[in-house]
Amino acid sequence: MRKFQKTILLILALALLTGCTASIPIKESAGVTLPPIALPYEAPSGDAAESIAQTVLLCLPSAKTGQLEYFPERVLLSPSRHPAELTLRRLFTYAGTTQASPLSSSVQLALNPGSAIEISGDTATVNLAPSALSLGNQERYIISRAIANTLTQWGDIRYVNVLINSRQLGLDTASTIPLSSLGKTDDGDVIALYDTLSQSAARQDIAYTAMATLYYPISSGRGIAARSQLITANSRSLPDMAYALIEALSTRGEVPSGTPAMPDLTTLLQSPITVDESASATGRLVKLNFRESMNEALIASGITRSVMMASLTYTLTTFLPYTAGISVTIGNEQITALVPAGLYDGAGEQILFANGIMQRSQFAQFLLDHCALYFANAQGSLSKTLRAIPYHQMHNPRYVMNQLMKGPLNTDSVTGLSPVLPADIKDADLLGITIQNDTALINFSNQLRAKSAQLTPEQELLMVYAMVNTLTKIRTAKQACFFIDGKQEGMFVQQIDVSGVFLRNEGIIQ
Description:
Elements: H1 2-17, E1 33-34, E2 52-61, E3 68-77, H2 84-93, E4 118-120, E5 123-128, H3 137-151, E6 159-164, H4 190-200, E7 208-217, E8 224-233, H5 238-249, H6 265-268, E9 274-280, E10 283-290, H7 294-301, H8 305-319, E11 323-330, E12 333-334, E13 337-338, E14 351-352, E15 368-376, E16 382-390, H9 397-406, E17 430-436, E18 439-444, H10 447-451, H11 457-471, E19 479-484, E20 501-503
Parallel strand pairs: 5-6, 10-11, 18-19
Antiparallel strand pairs: 1-20, 2-3, 4-5, 7-8, 9-10, 11-12, 13-14, 15-16, 17-18, 19-20
């Protein structure tokens, strides 16, 4: 690696002598490659990731006090998946010890069949199987708090929504008080906390403030992403809470650059929001009636109708208790079908809404999250940009690397950047990629060298560290190790040695 460092110093010195202003900013302590005496990794020939037993914290009732406490537990986790789902499955099957009681002694908890934990932004949504419907109000609240405390241990999740069979049942028997988006609580006495919330919710005619998850549209009709914020309704009536959600959704809030500005939905309402209590035995129906001008407002904002409906459906059904779906009328047209365009999955496939009722599950393919990618800027260094991708691909190294291969897109949060990999490098050139321990292992075919032969030393440096910095934004990867045709021999192009392990380089990022 000393040869590489000397080469970089020589490049920088030549740039200074020639008066070049596009020099590459590198911190002396950053970007160091550490060549081990014997590399403990082999080149991946596919994408299989070996699961490793790791210690996680399960939030469970103490066997002595009944209050929620954390108990360490070894769980087999995959480095290419967020640990949330596998940890929850262990939480649900925990049989109990002399120190900790099972989460429920009366119900076998499980995730709803066919559903995954949805993680977008800093919020996770857990959809429990119908067996949880038999839980009492207090026990359901305790379990929800235990789930939220367990999932917030990693830091990237701050809020948690808990649904049962795709419905949010609320705190009370009548399902009129929202559970809201739950954050971590340090108060293990959740029974007392539940009693306090229940008493404060008795008044229906006073203002109501709670944490809610809002699902805002992503640019170019790609889909929706989550952000959580406090909302305030004039009262605890369901129509007032629905209005508060739509009002909050109309504000921009903290979202990535390039996100389209939402029109003021409250001014586009043609009549007051209504909630039909008897439309379906499976839940309430929220009815929204917008003016004809809603169509023009969406076009002006660059928001497709399908994405707007996904945004409204996810936002309202996630927060409002026992809500099965929503019904939307624009002018005199009730929306009974949509044909989304621009989605990652399902573009061009018609979505039909029986009786005009839009349900949360029908928009699952719209949910996205933002991955970080690094591309070249005009100053000769790297810049980070955010790109919305399907939320379940956030920890898939091949998927993320393919996004880097695509180069910059006009829908990214930062525009005006340049590609770092040759345009004809394709997925087929990536023979294998996986994460082992905390190291991303990347095995390219020799086409990487052949197609990169014309790169300058500066471009070679940016290419390598764009890959390293992008992959180390995946939560389980802290360094990267490259192979070409299964070997750690030679240079990437002409200056940077393939061998060794590459650490993240913050100094090259502007």
